[in-house]
Amino acid sequence: MHQSIKRVNSLEDLLELQRQYSHIADFRTGRRREDGHREVLICGDTGCVANDSTEVVREFNRQLAAEGLEDQVKVSVIGCFGFCVQGPIVKIMPDNTMYVKVKPEDVPDIVHQHLLDSRRVKRLLYHDPSSGRDLEHSEDFPFYKKQKRVVMRNLGLVHPEKMEESIAFRGYEALARCVCEKTPQEVIDIVRASGLRGRGGAGFPTGIKWQAAADQPGDVKYIVCNADEGDPGAFMDRAILEGDPNSVLEAIAIAGYAIGAHEGIIYIRAEYPSAIHRLKLALTQAHQYGFLGKNIFGSGFDFDITLRYGAGAFVCGEETALLHSIEGGRGEPTPKPPFPFEHGLYGKPTIINNVETLANIPVILLEGAEWFSSIGRPGCSGTKVFCLAGKVRNVGLVEVPMGTTLREIIFDIGGGIRDDKRFKAVQTGGPSGGCIPESHLDTPIDYDSLKALGSIMGSGGMIVMDQDNCMVDVAKFFLEFAIEESCGKCAPCRIGTKRLHELLTKVTSGRATDNDLELLEEFGQTICASSLCGLGQSAPNPVLTTLRYFRDEYEQHVHDHHCAAEVCIDLMEFEITDACIGCNVCKKNCPVSCIDGAIREKHHINQADCIKCGSCMSICPVGAIIKK
Amino acid sequence: MPDGRTDNPQLIALQTYLNGLDKDEGSLIVALQRAQELIGYLSEDAIFMVGQTLNIPVSKVYGVVTFYSFFRTRPRGKYDIKVCLGTACFVRKSPAILNELATLLQMEVGTTREDLKYSLNTVRCLGACGSAPIVQVNDDLYANVQVSDVAGIIRRYLD
Ligand SMILES: Cc1cc2nc3c(=O)[nH]c(=O)nc-3n(C[C@H](O)[C@H](O)[C@H](O)COP(=O)(O)O)c2cc1C
Description:
Chain A is α/β, with parallel strands linked by helices and 628 residues long. Chain A contains 25 helices and 21 strands. Chain B has a 5-stranded mixed sheet with strand order 2-3-1-4-5, covered by helices on one side.
């Protein structure tokens, strides 16, 4: 911060600041142009950073300095554009040009051709395989066409480390209007009327939850933001916190005002260092501006937010476990009731909301409940962010209205399956969810429709699988996760998941019988019915759904000892074909010396001794070894 | 160390930090996180110090340490290698990358080599699913890693 910050003491002060900064928003959205002035927006989200976007930023700064352009061209590192597979993404404003897969060595071309000469760098534009055209504006990409950004409205648009940019985009206006113009009950009524349901997985109506906490007596209450994001295949909460931390802080304060709390806590995974850094910066700035702290906007309302770090335990995403973890203990769940809204953190009424749920709040209050409930479907309003990953072409973060079908997400937005392979299944809901087959792809997505299919919405992980994925192996993967993460407190989850895993291992090694498949089903249902918390109650879902939709694949393993996806190594043999040139390389490299053959003669694998490590196949210089 | 005196600079720093905390269980996880940050792992001395200073039985501290996967009671290697086994990485064959690392480094997954040069572990989702599979070495992230890239990655961390 260069200029000293003046505390904002009223709604009017804030609106005045908004006007002062409006040129930022106007320029960023292309509404305003200034001769020769441009802005280079570069994605600084973890995904793009993994692809070296930090070096791209450095290179832009170097090149711009070399050309003496620092005054006309500003470089801003901002949040996720969502199209992660095309990262690092660079956008030039106000031209609205999006460049994809930009490497540091591409920067001189962008500077010389685009910034100095106003010519587009064609080879860095997105090539749309469906139309065969190079597209300049992201609005025209099939990836973005069916999306609607509500939660992610500021991602890729607002600099997450600059409060003046948040203000320009109406940050904290909803909070100011709440504390200055509305009663807590009015706030709750709007959230209720919007129909917003919790995005953390269970889909509980947010307004009803807030009402329950507001109705509790006492003036010590807490708001906890659940940023534990445990689903190993979902990163929307991280992206929101990294790209737009202020919306989440604002929402926590609004929730506090609504239920009568003065303290908020964000419980965030320690594995998210960049999100933590951005949150800390935003907190400091929010205090300087007076958006948090004492007497917010001169309303007399006091509110503060602190951070607590999770220490790597999936079960801590569960509400009661999370609270025990904040209190400093082992994150083990306890039975409900009592519910956190009556007896939560340190025994006080506590509301726990997910990051994405909260990110909806400010915009609901600004645009109104009616606007929000007009998006999506009846009983399930708004949008949902999905982390679309796996074997789909357009991997990334996508936000769609509730009720969009799986097929639209995977094929229209996702661009279909990579490498022209065949779609097999889509897994939603992470370790608590299930695998959905082709025949159900036209299901409009909402909490209830996914549940009816045996899966869940969960936090929004959506992993696409193709013919090369073995469904038994996938079920086993999720169970391994459940076993590792089970806290061990209740027997069905601790022991049951282990037994399920043993049965699955029998299947993948060709030792199972039909009876084992029956047992899998029976065990699974028993664990669901008898576990203490959501972890155990949902852990068998990946097994039960694959049994339901891909039973033939299980039966192939059991009856034919065959894994069509060629994943289950115990059911496979390595074989040397006639292409062998007898070079001896595989023989020398075999760790158990089970390959025979004289030099320049075809070699042979001794199947009885083979440990199926595959090293012969990867080392063969002529690709003569196959797996079958 | 039970008498609280030490000349280990890391432990002295930890003691200073602990003295500034509220002496209750609410501070426990924060204290352990800081201890691990300072020392690199949670040594027996550190665990004792945390328990004594915060007035929490050491058995209880230990219970918390072993519950969370973030905490470790052994030192890590100079190069801390992590292979993401989140779902997106898993379906894009990260287990094969893990195997290749274990083979080339001649070590078991989940261990630290005797010479304290490498640790090899798995993690559940680093949140970069768009670039799966992901390998992390200390603070460096490698995206879209293929089995054939593994040897090249290791070559950058030989010294
Ligand atoms: C095992 C388990 C893990 C969970 N993990 C998360 C999580 O990582 N993030 C989250 O927001 N909710 C998680 N939940 C759901 C929370 O318990 C809770 O329902 C949610 O945070 C409530 O917020 P919402 O109403 O805004 O969705 C998890 C639940 C269970 C049973």
